[in-house]
Amino acid sequence: MKAEFEAIPLIKNEARKRFEIEVNGHYAFINYGERTHQIALVHTEADPELAGTGAAAAVVEKTLNYIKESGKKLLPFCPYVFAYIKKHPEWKEIVDEKFGGYDEL
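Above: the chain sequence. Below: its structure as tokens.
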């Protein structure tokens, strides 16, 4: 994660069912679904003003840290999150082994 995003807090916006960070009034976020022992990440998006800044990667990393700290398992349905984990295999440890694409990570 780029240094400029480290101090920006991750918000779990339960009303909108998304994890988000705000950067200069613009948002990068991941839509999620949550069960007792799992969090499914469905879609990652960043406002156009944040394109190419690394904000999407930052919200993914912050969200993965949140999931790890929560003790829940991850279901990475979002293609961006899935690709991020393939690129950073240390995160595979939080993916639910029952996830359909687990062996592709």
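The domain at 3-95 is CATH 3.40.630.30 (Aminopeptidase).
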